[in-house]
Amino acid sequence: MIEAWLAFVFGLLIGSFLNVCIYRWPRDLSVVRPRSHCVACGKTIAWYDNIPVLSFFLLRARCRYCNARISWRYPFVELATGLLFFYFVNDLGVTLAAAKMCVFGAILLALTFSDLEERILPDEFTKGGIAAGLLFAFFVPVPEGFAQFFVSGRAAWVLEAALGASIPALILWLAGWLYQRIRHRDGLGLGDVKLIAMAGSFLGLRGALLTLAAGSLAGSVIGYSYIRLARKDPHTYELPLGTFLALAALAIGLMPKVLGWYGDL
Predict the structure, then answer these.
(1) φ, ψ dihedrals at 163, nearest 5°
(2) Residue 47 belongs to what domain range?
(3) How far are the Cα atoms of 74, 107, 141, 198, 260 from residue 152, in angstroms, in the given order?
(4) Is 223 found in the same domain as 109?
(5) How does DSSP assign 75-89, residue by residue?
(6) Which of 11, 219, 235, 241 gives the lowest tally of CB atoms within 10 Å of its CB?
(7) Domain assignment present for 265
(8) What mean pLDDT is reported for the chain?
(9) What is the pLDDT of residues 45-68, one digit of tens each?
């Protein structure tokens, strides 16, 4: 249990860094320099005002210098990342499998809020996530699927991750292409295609197809309901499909028994 609590603390710190990435990467800004600062007045944030979750409440959600309001997204992402790290380490132990899922969960959280706030899914998360998922596949079992008919062992893990990254992404890209041909306007961004490829590299083909189905269904139902209730123009409103895909992938990752995760560990 102590390892899970240490993972929770580490997750809080990672969540703090994710907040920097969520704000800066969609704006093509460096996450290294300058140091963390108030986006309203530009003042550098002192270390004691940058303690995950705690500082937000001590400052009463306001900048110490200019009194500008601090978004609730900051403590939410920090706490959510900490809880995800706690869950995976508590469930899987101090293993590469837990590390893999912690990385996956952190990326999905960041993509969720990047898409919600800016309608941008940064390549640093999507392409970087694809590379990370394929790398982890060399060392951590991927849920069994189509690849098992051709190869076995470690080769099957890697092939399943590659199939998970490519086939659902191709399906989503074709759907977007057909929509554009029929409606003569874009209905899908390439960021969504790269996101589903990233999810597939971690979850395998079956998990990625479930993510695509669940995320698309949720996006259609919830998105349409929001458009009607908020009286948005359905022809111009940009639905954050990436948010729904990311949350669907996260839900599937939190239910390892659904996919038969890590049965040999």
Answers:
(1) -65, -40
(2) 1-92
(3) 43, 29, 11, 23, 16
(4) yes
(5) HHHHHHHHHHHHHHH
(6) 235
(7) no
(8) 89
(9) 988 999 999 999 999 999 999 999
